[in-house]
Write a structure and sequence with these properties.
Helices cover 70% and strands 0% of the residues. By secondary structure, it is an all-alpha fold. 22% of the residues are buried.
Length: 101
């Protein structure tokens, strides 16, 4: 039987929860960084900007252009922002469930 922490979680589930939260938060940060770069009109010829854009585009593939606002900034914030919120919330919810078991 796995040793239990004072909170009632096993050592392994706590470690897995930390990894899930970390991955979810990194995904959300990449998406938020792209939103910021796009809003600030970052130079798309820059390698860092291109890497962040490619990663964000892949992460938000399901939500990119989901909304058809007339303004470009609104589409970017809504499409990429929705993905960031979903990943962060889902990651923290899954981690919370792991910690309770």
């Amino acid at each position: 039987m796995s040793p239990r922490h004072p909170r009632g979680t096993t050592k392994g589930s706590d470690g897995a929860a930390k990894v899930i939260v970390l991955v979810a938060d990194v995904m959300a940060v990449i998406l938020a960084l792209w939103i910021l770069m796009d809003l600030l009109d970052a130079n798309r010829a820059n390698d860092l900007v291109q890497v962040v854009h490619d990663a964000a585009r892949w992460l938000a593939g399901w939500s990119h252009d989901l909304f058809t606002f007339d303004e470009h900034w609104a589409r970017v914030v809504a499409g990429y922002g929705l993905a960031a919120v979903v990943y962060a919330v889902a990651g923290h919810l899954v981690a919370g469930r792991l910690r309770r078991h």
